[in-house]
Design a protein that fits this description.
By secondary structure, the chain is of the alpha+beta class. It is built from 3 helices and 11 strands, in the order ββαββββααβββββ. Strand 7 and strand 8 (135-136) form a beta hairpin. The radius of gyration is 17 Å and the shape is globular.
């Protein structure tokens, strides 16, 4: 796994401002996420998971720790979901969010179409409980898989465990701050 030093963050954000990350890495597999989190622990620095850089402004002095980008970006429809009239769309945390409503609509599946064109990644969507035009992610989300940075174990939280509120979730609170969302 490659850890870049003093990586410019401005080009990785939609506002195109801000200083460098002391360390930067892209993790595409769970073991790489664990390796990156362990690296931050060993160096004694904080970590931050960066999606597509929307909804964020980086300070001019940059970030003093590890900025981690999730490289896994696949999505698929699960065949084993057996509720009539429903389908289960599963996406990696690094998947471009807008791909989900587009793929669902292409299969004549509805429920997240109002969430189209919201910038960011699938992993960031539950953090913010994204919403638009009277719909919110919590209306259709079933679960979130996350890697707990403290235990290095994968946990699955049902939507009721995510503490969703208006543009809020457990992932913004102390109890969810150590969870790196890897799949929704």
């Amino acid at each position: 796994m490659v850890f870049e030093e003093n990586k410019k963050l401005a080009p990785l954000t939609t506002m195109r401002v801000g200083g460098p990350a002391r360390f930067f890495s892209i993790a595409s597999r769970n073991d790489e996420i664990i390796e990156a989190l362990s690296f931050a622990e060993e160096k004694g620095v904080p970590y931050f998971v960066l999606g597509e850089g929307s909804n964020i402004i980086v300070a001019d002095k940059g970030f003093p720790g590890l900025v981690l980008s999730l490289g896994a970006n696949t999505l698929f429809f699960e065949d084993s979901f057996d509720s009539p009239g429903y389908a289960l769309l599963v996406a990696d945390g690094g998947a471009h969010w807008d791909t989900l409503p587009k793929e669902a609509a292409a299969k004549n599946l509805y429920g997240i179409e109002n969430l189209s064109l919201i910038p960011g990644t699938a992993g960031a969507a539950p953090v913010q409980n994204i919403g638009a035009y009277g719909a919110e992610l919590r209306d259709t989300l079933l679960w979130v898989e996350a890697l707990d940075a403290r235990t290095k174990k994968i946990v699955r939280l049902g939507k009721n465990e995510c503490g969703f509120g208006y543009r809020d979730s457990i992932f913004k609170q102390r109890e969810g701050a150590a969870l790196v969302i890897i799949r929704i």
